[in-house]
Amino acid sequence: MRALIPLFWPLACLLAGFAPLSSQGVIDASRAEEWRPLVPENTLYMDVGGSTVVFELAPELAPNTVRNIRTLVREGYFNGLSINRVQDNYVVQWGDPDAEDPARQRKQGIPPTLAPEFGRPAAGVAFTPIPGPDGFGEPGFVNGFAATRRDGAVWATHCYAALGVGRAESADSGNGSELYVVIGHAPRHLDRNVTIVGRVISGVEALSSLKRGTGPIGFYETAAERVPITRIRLGSDVPEGGRLPIEIMRTESASFRDYVDARAHRMRDGWFARDSGFIDLCNVRVPQRARARP
Amino acid sequence: MRALIPLFWPLACLLAGFAPLSSQGVIDASRAEEWRPLVPENTLYMDVGGSTVVFELAPELAPNTVRNIRTLVREGYFNGLSINRVQDNYVVQWGDPDAEDPARQRKQGIPPTLAPEFGRPAAGVAFTPIPGPDGFGEPGFVNGFAATRRDGAVWATHCYAALGVGRAESADSGNGSELYVVIGHAPRHLDRNVTIVGRVISGVEALSSLKRGTGPIGFYETAAERVPITRIRLGSDVPEGGRLPIEIMRTESASFRDYVDARAHRMRDGWFARDSGFIDLCNVRVPQRARARP
């Protein structure tokens, strides 16, 4: 396939009088129906350390855990808690710093355990593959979320900005009350070992630029270092004027396929001296753009 | 090859009465000669924003650019300059903020252009492959540096913490006076488009946790935001008591091969519910440890 491209493109350009598009060119040429809005019920707004971080949830990939998180958020469970762990090139993690102390832990109205959603049967999940190879399985996307498919299963992938559910030793110990975001090179060894429930779509830099914790695995050593979370709200509980006015390119669209190809051929952007001819799953950043208000 | 492992390991364990080692187990069982010290001439110490960041240079992969950087460092070229760009999930970059103004730019005693060292002929370079697949070529290491080999060439790979040489449009415009470090998911589309000269071996968190720049491609918008560089010194100009007392596992050793395998099989570490059975090049962190002082 790859060998055909150098033969095919010059011929196509000669015949049709067009050059392959850069990634920006693909975005500019895309059709309105190749973009989708955010669903308010599937977005979270976290006010933390003076910034707002916005997440999109992935009920397609982890329906029960997403439901638990919605319950916790509506209860105000996270309000007043803190970021307690920042490990370089790995994760930022938040929750109740007293979670392991029964006398001091914050009450929550959901069960302490939950059957893990480390992956799902691939059948029935709308998975759009992108070109491989990929050492972990077949790379692709499910409704905007990086995912991997293999042996009849599909799972959300630990790319930069992925939102995951912390757990203890036992697989069912992650109920959504302890969350983390990836802030480094994709730790894909965590795939299928924890439940991923979404990704950051705005403000990840407010998490990734936090001071690293100096305790084991990046925990802050003192309470004073913890970064307070003012509140987390569900998008549907945010007044409409305060919601993030963006739209996201549909990863099942023809333009997204062309966009991925353009990102593997960066000479189309200028500056580049060589094309890699390949892009790995976690380097594909799904295009998003300002949405004209209706 | 992969299919053999499940057959082979239980048999081996049964016969020899041992279980495959975890990554820490491999490190503990390694022999002294599988580790190497740092060469002072190939290390840089950067004092910046109250921290010290230590780099190891890779003359095996970019001899002429490394030579230029040594000259610049010995001249004190970087002392008093600043970090001017911090782009989230991408790079931290430093140099002369007035480099494009002939009247104000800092003088330097090296030529403004240099033939790029985007890659080298693979022949004669001691390359240790690790298991693929890898979409960019054959993954491996050259003396501790992540590298990729393909079509008779070998090049240093843009993994987290890689040290690269900024350049303008023309390929020969990077002489080493403008440097950057990768602080996000490996941007391997940059491979063979810029010269990589080494990597951070200590203190990368002092760079990756910096406030992100809000200007285009992460440049700080005001001079006040820039992070001053007190000085950069060559390890051989640092008094011996001030040098980083570590040693690095030889990537051509048998223990390193076993370490890479252990990192693809994390169930050996406990906690993990599943092995990925694979690790990608940029997630392999070359082991380093405190070196007993002679």
TrEMBL record, chains A, B:
Keywords: Isomerase, Rotamase, Signal. Its EC number is 5.2.1.8. Residues 53-234 form the PPIase cyclophilin-type domain. PROSITE patterns: CSA_PPIASE_2. Residues 1-25 form the signal peptide. Gene3D superfamilies: Cyclophilin-like. It is an enzyme of class 5 (isomerase). GO terms for molecular function: peptidyl-prolyl cis-trans isomerase activity. Coiled coil: none annotated. This is peptidylprolyl isomerase.
